[in-house]
Every structure is written in structure tokens, then in C-alpha cells.
Design a protein that fits this description.
By secondary structure, the chain is mostly helical. Helices cover about 60% and strands about 5% of the residues. A five-stranded mixed sheet has the order 4-5-3-6-7, covered by helices on one side. A three-stranded antiparallel sheet has the order 8-12-11. A two-stranded antiparallel ribbon has the order 1-2.
């Protein structure tokens, strides 16, 4: 099956075929693991209750570990808002000894952090807040108050019961001597029968396992009476009861105590604060995850004891396209089943179908990875050693793949900009997968890297508009469609929203700002003083529109009421304001590089001195940035200054990277390769490398093998990102340039009527491809000034070398044809057209109705309007389905 599917990949590239088969293998492994271990527990409720491990079992925390990982699912640490939303207008009952009381207090403090634990020990306690109540009954032997309350079956209760938690056992062992276990067994049987008699009221009953103490911390009296054999017998009996009666016994609560040296307090019986919080959260995960996810939707970050919703209408469409439509088009158009020859892109005119299949397959992979239980999800945990090792590996791979550019690059050339984007993207990926956002020094560096992407966006687009003055709709459409195709599609297939994949919206916004700035009075752009003033005015206007309340609120109101779009305005305003000025600095940098080359300042006699001064200033800028950031101890403080100082390390690095002629022309091919698909790696990491909508890590096999999982998922993630980047480029070309229909087959000449026809061998018509169609990609100028002096940008470097994260895409071999909308040209147009004409797709295109629609879609504005109208319809469907 995998080999058959690999036929659908572009021919001639065995690496891609191998990775495609590898992807099928990974999917099969995930399916096998699911069938072997999860088929009887698909929603991970049993896994949540049965076991787990601590990911942060370190001695540094006085309050014990806090990052609990059940097998194969993402554990939720409940906050006040979520807990109150789940338990509103309900009653929670705790009854038992001091270990149960500790869980009661942790639940109460989650609901209301202002509450503090009282000094009363052996007494009943009741907490009431906003029509919810939590009650604790002191009954260590479970034979008095608790038994009477449970026996009432909620007859006098004012609120329905959310769950009931019962527990005890240590008092039997501690105070009842040799007969304690028998008495405990009798009392436990009685309370279980009582709970079973009230299934309507006690729909979620818990009996806690008997706490396994830390025996090394017990005092002499306790260690002499609380015996390991008795505790083990009690817990085994509770497991048997759970299997027979359906009463829930969360054995994982004891795992929380036994799997960490730092889980118990000085008594050896009670938990430290963090561990007690995790115990209380385990019960909330069991009770609340499904309810809250159904109410709130994404992010789907509570995957323990959660049943993912079935496919929506839009998701069904994509899945049907991948499973049925695309393979059918392949088989019909390329005659895959009738020809022993490997199908190859171009030979059958299927480049566009290939791109559509790859794009739809990527969406389906995201869906199965992060919207089903097929793949495991696990929590992140920052480890300094892991972050360091991954960073060193990145540096080593970059160093081992250094090579000289094939052509002279000049200042910030194509290879260098791809390399820059590549290694920054790798560091962003490491930052996300390791959960390093809580480490302030790393956070500061990543914020600068994001700003550097936007700097390149301003730089590249400004150079393009200045040099080419192309403000047409085709230019705007090509950039915006290329930027947003994947993010918009994922928003529908994953039931998220567009701003969730924040970099594509951010890049689109700043592209439109650059476009508007350069477009207004564009005939005067050659006047450098006017253009600088225009950029400054644009910065002031954008700052006011974003910062002053009212303008964005009005736009958001229209989006919600008219287009059924609900976006987080607060988050969007934060993202824009955080990098408010770096794009404008990039625009000024682009103008400076142009004027520097035009004036040929590198030939000035004082240039060597100026060059050394600039290099010194670059080093000083890096030092000043470091010194300033060391004074801020929180993200809030740093974020308030970031818009004003982020240009210091960016410009400092840029000049140092271009310090010599040799440095300009050496780059890392590995980093540059990642740079060519950096938009896709940034977007797809949300679902096929990380999981739970970036809150967790995707796993194919057991959660115990975290490093092995990373080694399995990373190559597939990078491969999918690369082929998706190529597919998105082709689909963008099809949308912007249209699709060239197959030329009609010429009619055979009619023989004279008076002469019998003589059949002669038909000559094959060779169609030559014009020079403009086969022209190679223009390269930078052959001669570049030495040092880091900016060379005059060529058309190619102006449009792609520094146009930011989103515009870099791999050009296919038949790029000239694709740019003209011809997805079938390979030098033998006649044979290609014959295949297309005889294919299912060709016959469909000849239908009068389809041909009429085709002609109407020939205009770019009509195609764009059709896409936007379809998205509006999808929004309406999604809104009503919710």
C-alpha cells in the first residue's frame, strides 16, 4: 500500500518517495500502538486513573514536583476560571481522614485562591461560593457521618453532586491493631454498597487508594503500626472492588507519592503542596475535561478522559478529497494502474493535482495527529540539558554543511537570508518543543528572532516596490495567498482560528502596511527625503490606529457580525505592538542599501575607516542590548522595552554577518533548506510536531520514550513542511495566474474526394518552448563590492532574497511554465495535451458548463472573490454547527 501511495509523489526524487513511505510507516506504527494499548481505553480515562510519572522530579522545588504525565495524554493543571466553570451550581463531597481533607483544601483553593487552610483538624468543613459548594466530612473510619450522608442519596441536597471522594485506611492500621484490616474491609464494603444504591445522585464516585507513606520519614510509633503488607493488601482489595462494582479507584494518586522522593512532607503521610494540587487536579480532569472542551472548544489541551468530536462538514470534505477524489484523479489522468512506468510529475500534466493531493494530505495528517486519539499527547518539560544538546546539534549541522554560494551574493543575499531564516526557525522550534518560554533569557532571544523576521519583511518588500514599482493586484495576491493558504486551511480543518497561527497574519498585516506606504504617492518614491518622511508618517499612523481604542474594535465588530469571525483582539494588539517599529526600520534599511550601492560609497577613500567604525558600533550595539536586558527580571518589563531596542541586536548581527566578502558568500545549506520552508515549519509545528494545540508534544509510541518519539516525528515533520511549501507555491501560482487549458488537437487534413485516401505515418509535432518559458532564475550581479557594503539589489534579490519568513518557497524545475499557469509542460506539449484530453479531468473540462465556469474564472479578481465567498460560507456553516 505504501509503495502504491508513493507513486503519487513527484517522480525523479527518490528521497521524497522514501520519506513518503516512511510517513506511511509512522502512521501504521501509531495505528498498531493504538490497537495494542488504546482500543479498550480510547479516551485515556483508564490511563489517567491508573498510572503516570513526574517530568520534573528535581530537588530544587521545596513544594515537590508539579508536572504530572499520565500515559499518552495531556494532563490539565486546573486554574480558578476552569474549575469554577466546571463545578458551577454543583456540590462536591469529600469524606474520610486527613489525606482526603488535604485534597478538599486543594480543591477549595483552586476555586478561590484567597482561601487559606484553617487550623481545625478533626471537624467537618463547608465551602460555598457562587452557587457551588464543597464539603468535607471528618470520618476516618467511614462509619458515621459519611455513611449517613451517603445513605441519604441526596434527598435533602440543594445542588446536584459533581463527584464524591471517600477515603481512609491509615487509621485502621494505626489504631485498630491486628484486626484493623478486617474492620476496614467491612466498612469499605458497606460504603460501596451504599454508593451503588444511589447511581442517579453519585454518578462519579471515587474511593481513594490507601496512601503509601514514605516509610523513611515516619516516626517510630507510625512505622511500627502502619505495615507495608497491610497497605498493599488494602489497595489490592480496592482494585478488585473497582473491577466488580464500577467504583473508581484512582491508583495514580499513589503513584504520585511513590514515584518521587520529594512528594511527601516531613510527616511521610501527607503530600507536598504541588503533589496535593496534582491529586486534586486528577479528579477534576476526570470530571471536567469533556465538559469544558465541549463548552469552550480549542485549544484542545485537556486530552485525558476526552472524546474528540467527530469530523465537521468541512473536515469531511477534506478527508473525502484525500481518500477518494485525489486518488481517482491520479488514476484517471496518469493511468497509474495501466502503466508499469513510475508516474512522474509533468509527464502526465499532474503537477497541480500533485500539489492539491499533498496539501490535502498535510491537512489530514494534522487532523489525525491533533484531533483524534490515534497519536499520543504528552506535556512539555524544560530541561537545560535537552535545550543545550539540541542547540549544539543545530550548530554542528550548520557548520558541517557550510559551502560557498554558487554566485556572488552581496549584502544580505538570497542564500544568506535563507540561512538566517533557517537557523532562527530551528531555534524557535527548539524553544517551543522544550517548553523554554518560561526561561526569561531564552524568551528574550526568541523575541529578537521574531523581530528579525519582520525586519526582513520590511526590507525585502521595500526594495521590491522601490526597484520594480509593481503595485498590481497580482503582486498583492501572490504574496497574501502564499502567506495565508496553509493558515486559513488549518483554521477550518482544525476548528481553530486564523490568528492562532499568528505569524502568517502578522506578516500579512505588515506587508499591507509596506504596500500602502510605498503605494501612496508612489511616483515620488525616488525622492529619498519624501520617502523617508512617508515612512515616518506611516509609523505614526499605524501606531495610533493600533494603540488607540476604537479603530480595531470597530473592525472586529464588523468581522464578528458580518463575517462570523471571532478573533482575540487583545492578543492581536499585543502581537502588533510588540514589534511596532522593526518593520519600518527594515524599510529604512532597504532604502539605505539601495542608495549605498547607487552612490558607490564603497569606492570612497574613507570607506575602510568607516567600515571598521560600523563593525565596532555593531559589537557595541550587541553589548548595549545585553546590558539593558539584564536589568529586567520579568517578561512584562522586557516586553515594554522590546519595540524600542530590538533593532540593536538585529543590525549588529547583520553587519557582523556581512563583515567580509568571504562571509557574504559562505552559507549553511542545511539552515538555508529550513529557511526555504520556514513558514510551513512554523505553522505545522502546532499540530504535527507539538500537539494539544502547541501545549503538548506529539508522540507515536509510549510516553516513556520521549527522545525516541522526537527522533521519529522530527524527520517526518520536516519532510511534510518541505513538500507542503512546494505544493503551496504551485497552488498559489494556479490561483494567481490561472491554469492553462490543454490546446485543442489539430484536425487531420481531409484528402481530396476524387483521390483515394492514402494513410501515411503521422509526423510527431515538436513544440519548442520559448526562451522566456525556460529562462533560469536570474542570479545576483557577478561583481559585488567587498565587505558588508550593500550591493544594488537585482530583481530576484529584491523580490525573494529578503522578503521575510513567508515568501521563501522552492521553485520547481518547470517554474517558468507554472508561473504562466501551465502545469503540464515538459518539452513535449503534444503528448501532454493528448494525455490530458483523454483523461477524466480533460473530458470534464470539455463539458459546456465547466468550460463556461472556466472562462469566468479566468479573471484573477473573480478567483479571489470566489475564494473569499467560499470562506464566508464556511464561516456561516461553522458558526451554526457550533
Amino acid at each position: 500500500m505504501a509503495i502504491l501511495l508513493s507513486q503519487l509523489m513527484p517522480g525523479g526524487d527518490h528521497v521524497k518517495r522514501s520519506f513518503f513511505i516512511y510517513g506511511v510507516f509512522v502512521f501504521v506504527v501509531a495505528l498498531w500502538r493504538y490497537a495494542a494499548s488504546d482500543v479498550f481505553d480510547p479516551y485515556k480515562c483508564g490511563a489517567l486513573l491508573a498510572a503516570g510519572e513526574w517530568l520534573d522530579d528535581f530537588p530544587e522545588s521545596a513544594n515537590g514536583p508539579s508536572n504530572w504525565q499520565p500515559p499518552g495524554c495531556k494532563f490539565r493543571n486546573y486554574n480558578t476560571k476552569d474549575a469554577n466553570q466546571c463545578l458551577r451550581e454543583q456540590h462536591v463531597l469529600f469524606a474520610g481522614d486527613s489525606t482526603v481533607r488535604q485534597l478538599f483544601w486543594q480543591t477549595v483553593m483552586t476555586l478561590d485562591p484567597s482561601v487559606s487552610e484553617t487550623t481545625e483538624k478533626h471537624s467537618d468543613i463547608r465551602f460555598v461560593k457562587d452557587e457551588l459548594s464543597v464539603e468535607f466530612l471528618w470520618d476516618p473510619y467511614l462509619n458515621s457521618t459519611a455513611l449517613r450522608r451517603v445513605s441519604a442519596c441526596g434527598q435533602d441536597a440543594e445542588l446536584p453532586n459533581a463527584y464524591v471522594v471517600l477515603g481512609g485506611g491509615l487509621w485502621f492500621a494505626r489504631y485498630l491493631g491486628d484486626n484493623g484490616v478486617n474492620v476496614w474491609k467491612e466498612h469499605t464494603d458497606r460504603i460501596v454498597e451504599t454508593v451503588k444504591a444511589c447511581p442517579q445522585y453519585y454518578s462519579l464516585p471515587f474511593i481513594l487508594p490507601v496512601t503509601v507513606p514514605e516509610y523513611t520519614k515516619l516516626n517510630v510509633e507510625r512505622s511500627g503500626t502502619i505495615l507495608k503488607s497491610e497497605i498493599e493488601y488494602m489497595n489490592n482489595y480496592l482494585k478488585w472492588i473497582s473491577q466488580q462494582s464500577g467504583i473508581i479507584v484512582p491508583s495514580a494518586i499513589n503513584d504520585m507519592m511513590t514515584k518521587s522522593m520529594y512528594a511527601s512532607d516531613e510527616s511521610g503521610i501527607h503530600s507536598t503542596q504541588n503533589v496535593a494540587k496534582a491529586k486534586a487536579d486528577l479528579l477534576l480532569n476526570m470530571r471536567c475535561n469533556q465538559k469544558l472542551m465541549d463548552l469552550n472548544g480549542y485549544p484542545y489541551d485537556k486530552t485525558c478522559c476526552y472524546r474528540y468530536p467527530g469530523p465537521t462538514f468541512i473536515q469531511w470534505i477534506v478527508l473525502i478529497v484525500v481518500v477518494l477524489v485525489m486518488p481517482a484523479l491520479y488514476i484517471n489522468s496518469s493511468r497509474l494502474l495501466s502503466s508499469p512506468r513510475m508516474w512522474s510529475e509533468g509527464a502526465s500534466g499532474n503537477a497541480l493535482i500533485t500539489a492539491g493531493f499533498i496539501f490535502a494530505t498535510t491537512l489530514s495528517y494534522c487532523y489525525f495527529a491533533d484531533r483524534s486519539s490515534l497519536f499520543n499527547k504528552a506535556a512539555k518539560q524544560f530541561l537545560t540539558s535537552q535545550f543545550t544538546v539540541m542547540t549544539i546539534m543545530t550548530i554542528v549541522i550548520g557548520a558541517l554543511t557550510l559551502k560557498r554560494s554558487d554566485s556572488e551574493q552581496g549584502f544580505m543575499g538570497r542564500d544568506q537570508s535563507n540561512e538566517w531564516k533557517g537557523w532562527m526557525q530551528i531555534m524557535v522550534l527548539i524553544y517551543h518543543i522544550t517548553g523554554a518560554s518560561k526561561v526569561l533569557p531564552i524568551y528574550k532571544v526568541i523575541r529578537v528572532m521574531v523581530a528579525a523576521y519582520l525586519f526582513m519583511t520590511g526590507y525585502g518588500h521595500t526594495v521590491f516596490f522601490y526597484k520594480k514599482a509593481d503595485f498590481g493586484i497580482k503582486r498583492v495576491a501572490s504574496v497574501l495567498v502564499r502567506l495565508n493558504m496553509l493558515s486559513c486551511a488549518l483554521a477550518y480543518i482544525m476548528n481553530t482560528d486564523y490568528l492562532f497561527y499568528y505569524f502568517a497574519p502578522l506578516s500579512s498585516f505588515w506587508f499591507l502596511v509596506v504596500y500602502a506606504t510605498m503605494y501612496v504617492q508612489s511616483q515620488r518614491n525616488k525622492d529619498i527625503r519624501f520617502l523617508v518622511a512617508k515612512i515616518a508618517v506611516s509609523a505614526v499612523i499605524v501606531n495610533l490606529l493600533v494603540s488607540v481604542h476604537g479603530f480595531l474594535e470597530s473592525i472586529w465588530f464588523v468581522l464578528e457580525r458580518v463575517f462570523f469571525i471571532s478573533w482575540n483582539l487583545k492578543e492581536w494588539r499585543f502581537r502588533v505592538q510588540l514589534d511596532m517599529y522593526i518593520v519600518f526600520i527594515g524599510m529604512l534599511g532597504g532604502l539605505l542599501s539601495i542608495k549605498f550601492a547607487e552612490l558607490k560609497l564603497v569606492q570612497h577613500p574613507n570607506w575602510p575607516t568607516a567600515r571598521l567604525a560600523i563593525l565596532g558600533a555593531s559589537v557595541a550595539a550587541l553589548f548595549v542590548y545585553w546590558a539593558m536586558t539584564e536589568t529586567w527580571s520579568s517578561k512584562v518589563e522586557y516586553n515594554s522595552w522590546h519595540p524600542y531596542i530590538s533593532f540593536l541586536p538585529i543590525l549588529g548581527f547583520l553587519f557582523l554577518r556581512n563583515a567580509t566578502h568571504g562571509a557574504q558568500n559562505i552559507y549553511s545549506t542545511a539552515w538555508a533548506w529550513v529557511g526555504t520552508c520556514s513558514l510551513e515549519t512554523f505553522t505545522l509545528q502546532f499540530h504535527i510536531w507539538m500537539a494539544a494545540d502547541t501545549n503538548g508534544v506529539l508522540e507515536v509510541i509510549s510516553s516513556r520514550h520521549r527522545v525516541l518519539n522526537l527522533l521519529v516525528t522530527t524527520p517526518l515533520f520536516l519532510f511534510v513542511s518541505n513538500v507542503t511549501a512546494d505544493a503551496t507555491g504551485k497552488l498559489t501560482a494556479a490561483i494567481v495566474n490561472g491554469i492553462k487549458k490543454p490546446a485543442p488537437k489539430p484536425k487531420a487534413p481531409q484528402p481530396p474526394k476524387e483521390v483515394l485516401p492514402v494513410v501515411e505515418p503521422e509526423k510527431t509535432e515538436q513544440t519548442t518552448v520559448s526562451e522566456s518559458e525556460t529562462a533560469s532564475v536570474p542570479s545576483p550581479a557577478a561583481e559585488q563590492p567587498s565587505g558588508f557594503a550593500p550591493a544594488e539589489p537585482t530583481d530576484e534579490s529584491a523580490s525573494t532574497a529578503a522578503a521575510g519568513l513567508a515568501e521563501t518557497q522552492a521553485r520547481p524545475e518547470n517554474a517558468a511554465d507554472i508561473e504562466k499557469g501551465d502545469f503540464g509542460s515538459n518539452g513535449n506539449t503534444t503528448r501532454t495535451n493528448d494525455v490530458l484530453r483523454n483523461s477524466f479531468a480533460g473530458k470534464l473540462l470539455e463539458h459546456p458548463m465547466v468550460e463556461s465556469i472556466w472562462n469566468e474564472m479566468g479573471d484573477l479578481r473573480v478567483r479571489l472573490f470566489t475564494i473569499l465567498a467560499s470562506m464566508w460560507a464556511f464561516n456561516i456553516i461553522s458558526s451554526f454547527s457550533r
